[in-house]
Write a structure and sequence with these properties.
The complex is a heterodimer of chains A (492) and B (245). Among the domains of chain A are: 242 residues, 3-Layer(aba) Sandwich (Rossmann fold); 56 residues, no CATH class. In chain A, 48% of the residues lie in helices and 11% in strands. In chain A, the strands form 3 sheets. In chain A, strands 1-10-7-4-2-3 form a 6-stranded parallel β-sheet, sandwiched between helices. Chain A has a 4-stranded mixed β-sheet with strand order 8-5-6-9. In chain A, helix 3 packs across helix 12 and helix 9 runs parallel beside helix 10. Chain B contains 14 helices and 8 strands. A 4-stranded parallel β-sheet of chain B has the order 2-1-3-4, with helices on both faces. Chain B has a 4-stranded parallel β-sheet with strand order 6-5-7-8, with helices on both faces. The longest helix of chain B has 17 residues. The chains are: A alpha/beta (492), B alpha/beta (245). Chains A and B meet through helix 1, helix 15, helix 17, helix 18 and helix 19 of A and helix 1, helix 2, helix 3, helix 4 and helix 9 of B. The complex binds iron/sulfur cluster. The site of iron/sulfur cluster (SF4) has 14 residues of chain A, from helix 14.
């Protein structure tokens, strides 16, 4: 089902560019990740630490539930008039000396940014941590055009130097521990001290030394954005390290790539989100650096500012009333940190830069369900994500909805899978009392399997994937219904 | 009070002792239990696997069978969650508004066992006796869909002789998740491994919960390890009158 909300439908995120699709389905990728004991220790340790921090600072806020409701309501209202807010944002930025570009997808966005950098004559850029540029594969596009991007966020730098992909929205190198980071630095930083230890402080200082030079010489910076205020034309980036602030203020030219869903109507809306975001993401009361800028300020900061508004499957997502709430996400990553699946598999298993529960609902919508068909099933529907989400996205219900979309799409192809046949047969049997009673009697044949014991330890596929690690009880001699009829007679 | 029991397909077929315990508990408390015939499955396995169209006849049947009763009780947080939060949604998505209204109606009169005992009947001491060391796993749908909170714990604390030990990381999913346990068997097993470790850390004899499905997962894992810790449904403990040793 789709609804027109004033936005043109420009289709899904294209294949062959960016990082929204994995090479293999989730179960296969997860199996490999689960076998990596070091990875599981790293992620288990990191997520449990941050979960505790978040719970503590969220518990301090007496009106947390009201804030969550306000956050959700602002986002929902914005999405219903996204077209007009975006045009208002564009007009306000242009009035303040900035330039706004509209990119239909990753290919267009990469082309626009590459052209803008080339026009400055620079062959290198410094980058502020940004999910949108990871999504579109901007670094690869720049490198192909002979431009060297330098990631300046510490974790993003570790990922870049490790020729790796981010595995978490907020902590892209969450899958690495200190010893691994030390090795990467020694291998990849020409100026690293050979006596480098794996103390966090020492590693941070090494990165600082490595980056300082870049901040002072770079002429172009590329950032993402956490929020854009339509009524003022103001963009905002929140961060912890201050490296983003350097990029946003020192270079001559600033290019910001931002998903169209990041716009909020009014300046006062930031009051809500700047409370929700840091407590949900890093477990801090306030993030150390909040940068805000509006167009160009003569003589202060970048003198050239470009905003690239990215669609890449977002209007297609917006068109689905049961899926569009995924666009409300403020990328806090709280849902990743509480997710029992993410905690065990890590982010790479999801194959997209957006992992965890939000990735499982966002990636398939951005790419179209057929390209990420296994992701909506990568959840036990435990609901922990919904409980922590600062903008109350009902991720479990959306997962169930996307599973139905996937099954319906398959249905339309007309080739029922074995699973579909089983589901159909089960529904056919169970919706009729006589058939159901007969089927229950047949289940009793399972007693033969557990003949010698009270348990069944081996079943044929697909149930073999249950019995690979778990027993099943031997079916009882008498079902509950039979017992009831035998002892009480039948009832209405 | 006249109570209609929705026994659930899993309990009916594989864990009849849980249904019998629910009946004996409610009758001991002085209530009349009826088991409407024609009941089978709430359709949750279909809904949560994406087969909403297949779930529709099951929802229709369930709604028909139970619409005549003022109170419906099921020994499963998960099935009650589906009835209360999914049935109307699926009917509406299929364009059947009449069914959606009727299903919603049944949902408002359907209770998970601990909710029914504490909220509707107002009892926390059901007169049970069970002299064993027990730990309680709050299943995800009881905890987060139904918000049963500490109701099951309040019931357990009033059981004579029962030594209740807190389960570490209790709110973490056991890894069952319906067809998730088969489709993502490796991840499900990894989640189960941690749950079992926490259960074994309590040195409890019995791990209990309000859902036979999650207990099938935890119990299936413990049985495979020959761990010696049993799983019992909350209803079985609350129905017990086993005298103190
Ligand atoms: S879905 Fe909610 S919890 Fe998850 S990252 Fe987005 S805002 Fe945070």
């Amino acid at each position: 089902m789709s609804t027109f909300l004033g936005m043109p439908d420009v289709g899904h995120a294209p294949r062959g560019v960016g990082h929204l699709r994995g090479e293999e389905p989730f179960p296969a990728a997860a199996r490999k990740a689960l076998a990596n004991a070091q990875l599981r220790r790293n992620i288990g340790h990191a997520t449990s630490t941050i979960r505790a921090k978040r719970a503590a600072v969220v518990g301090e806020v007496p009106d947390w539930e009201e804030l969550r409701t306000a956050g959700r309501d602002i986002k929902n209202a914005t999405m219903h008039r996204l077209d007009s807010y975006l045009e208002q944002l564009e007009a306000n930025i242009q009035a303040r000396g900035g330039v706004v570009h509209w990119a239909r997808d990753a290919i267009e966005a990469n082309e626009i940014v590459t052209r803008l950098v080339k026009a400055t004559g620079s062959d290198e850029v410094v980058k502020v941590k940004s999910m949108a540029t990871q999504e579109i594969g901007l670094n690869e596009a720049l490198e192909a055009a002979g431009i060297t991007p330098y990631e300046t966020d510490l974790a993003e730098l570790i990922v870049q130097l490790g020729h790796d992909l981010p595995s978490h929205i907020l902590v892209p190198a969450i899958h690495r521990n200190r010893a691994e980071i030390r090795e990467i630095f020694l291998r990849e930083m020409p100026d690293a001290d050979p006596g480098l230890t794996d103390e966090p402080q020492v590693l941070a200082m090494a990165a600082r030394k490595h980056l300082r030079e870049k901040f002072l010489t770079a002429r172009v910076a590329i950032s993402g954005a956490n929020f854009a205020v339509a009524e003022t034309g103001t963009l905002s980036v929140v961060e912890s390290e201050g490296n983003g602030r350097m990029c946003l203020t020192l270079p001559q030219t600033l290019i910001t790539v931002m998903g169209i869903e990041k716009v909020v109507p009014a300046w006062t809306d930031l009051e809500v989100f700047l409370q929700l975001l840091p407590r949900s993401s890093t477990g801090e009361r306030m993030n150390p650096y909040t940068s805000m800028w509006t167009g160009v300020t003569p003589g202060d900061g970048p003198q050239e500012f470009h905003l690239v508004l990215l669609d890449n499957g977002r209007t297609a997502t917006l068109a689905d009333p049961d899926g569009r709430e995924a666009l409300n996400c403020i990328r806090c990553s709280a849902c990743l940190n509480v997710c029992p699946v993410y905690e065990r598999t890590g982010g790479h298993a999801y194959g997209s830069v957006y992992p965890g529960p939000i990735g499982a609902v966002l990636s398939p919508q951005l790419t179209g369900i057929e390209d990420n068909a296994s992701l909506p099933y990568a959840s036990s529907l435990c609901g922990a994500c919904y409980d922590v989400c600062p903008v109350k996205i009902d991720i479990p219900t959306m997962l169930v909805h996307l599973r139905a979309e996937h099954v319906d799409a398959r249905r339309a192809e007309g080739r029922p899978s074995p699973e579909a046949l089983v589901m159909r047969a089960a529904a056919w049997t169970m919706s009729n009392p006589r058939r159901w009673a007969l089927a229950q009697r047949l289940t009793r044949l399972g007693r033969l399997l557990g003949r010698r014991r009270d348990r069944i330890s081996q079943l044929p596929p697909p149930l073999s994937s249950w019995t690979a690690s778990r027993d099943l009880p031997r079916p009882p001699e008498e079902t509950f219904s039979e017992w009831w009829t035998r002892t009480r007679g039948s009832q209405p | 009070m006249r109570v209609a029991l929705f026994v659930t397909c899993l309990v009916d077929t594989l864990f009849p002792q849980v249904g019998r315990a629910t009946v004996s508990l409610l009758e001991r408390l002085g209530h009349e239990v009826v088991v409407p015939s024609g009941q089978s499955c709430c359709g949750q396995p279909q809904i949560n696997t994406g087969y909403q169209r297949e779930a529709l006849p099951l929802i229709r049947r369930h709604t028909d069978v139970f619409s005549a009763y003022d109170a419906v009780v099921a020994p499963s947080g998960s099935c009650v969650g589906s009835i209360r939060h999914q049935h109307a949604m699926v009917a509406r998505r299929a364009g059947d508004d009449g069914l959606a209204t009727a299903a919603h109606d049944v949902g408002t009169r359907t209770y998970e066992l601990s909710e029914f005992l504490v909220d509707v009947l107002g009892v926390e001491d059901v007169g049970a006796s069970f002299p064993h060391r027990v730990t309680y796993h709050p299943t995800c749908h009881s905890l987060r869909m139904l918000r049963v909170g500490d109701k099951p714990l309040r019931l357990l604390r009033n059981v004579r002789g029962l030594d209740l030990v807190e389960l570490p990381a209790a709110d973490q999913c056991c890894g069952f998740g319906g067809t998730f346990a088969v489709k993502n068997a490796d991840t499900s097993t990894a989640m189960l491994a941690d749950k079992m470790q926490h259960v074994l850390d309590t040195e409890a004899e019995v791990c209990t919960a309000g859902d036979s499905s999650c207990l099938m997962q935890i119990g299936g894992g413990l049985s495979r390890l020959r761990a010696g810790t049993r799983t019992l449904h909350l209803a079985e403990i609350l129905a017990s009158t086993e005298p103190a040793a």
